[in-house]
Amino acid sequence: MRALPSRRHFARRSRLQRWAGLTARLCLLPLALLAPLPALAAELPIFDAHMHYNVEARSLLSPEQVVALWRRLGITGVLATSRPNQGTLDLMAALAREGRKDIQLVPFLRPYRVQPDRDDWFSNPEIEKMVEAELKRGIYRGIGEFHIFGRDADAPYVARMARMAKQRGLWLHAHADEDAVERILRHAPGVRMIWAHTGMSTSIDKVEEMFARHPSLVGELSYRSDMEDNGQLSPRWRALLLKYPDRFVLGTDTWVTSRWSQVPDIIATYRRLLAGLPPHTAEKIAWRNGLAMFGAQ
Ligand SMILES: [Zn+2]
Prior knowledge:
CATH topology of the largest domain: TIM Barrel
Strand content: 5-15%
CATH architecture of the largest domain: Alpha-Beta Barrel
Radius of gyration: 20 Å
Order of helices and strands: HHEHHEHEHHEHEHEHEEEHEHH
Structural class: alpha/beta
Distance between the termini: 36 Å
Number of helices: 13
Shape: globular
Helix content: 40-55%
Bound molecules: zinc ion
């Protein structure tokens, strides 16, 4: 894993890129008078449906630097879910201070205070109390990302939380194996769920079968390394994305601090892979689906 670049690195890179962008625009200026710039037109906006601004990252990147990074990369929507939730609140405050409306932030309630909560949140009464207290803020559009596998999804709190989410119109964002997804959907049939990493290692045939049976399931595509085949979108994934163009979203999943330095590459990879789809479908997966799920605010 690469080390996190310093703030200076981001600043330097940003200056360099601005300079490179300016030079490119100056060189192309005569052409630009004749035709629209295809390079700019091809730059798909991105809705990042899996972003964490965790406590470790907060000590290295200010909310303003995170927002600046999003803007530089063309990320126009972000589903934010942070440990603890203060990270998400800080980002909301930074965007509110700016007063610009070019980035839509969709806050999700993460049921974790500290990293070890990930292992037993579903059986810890303190977490249930924390979730209840956080929900009183009235800002969250969903609960997650949470980790749950197999029979743990039958814990009484998971069932209660899934039913509560369905009742209140909240989404779930689950990092789960297919067994846990099925159990949650049995507790609360029809509850809307983002399946983090689309199961990560779940076979594509199984994903397809689950999508057919569960119309409320949306797949988030981070860490699906099988999407790329010789630098291009794999034919099998292409077929699945074309079959369910309204049910996939992208994510950066900045779950460890080192992942922040990879965000530009992650976004570039998504844009490269999506270029293998018809533009209308690529747009949906890049950002329109996220917008349709959560609406403009
Ligand atoms: Zn995650």
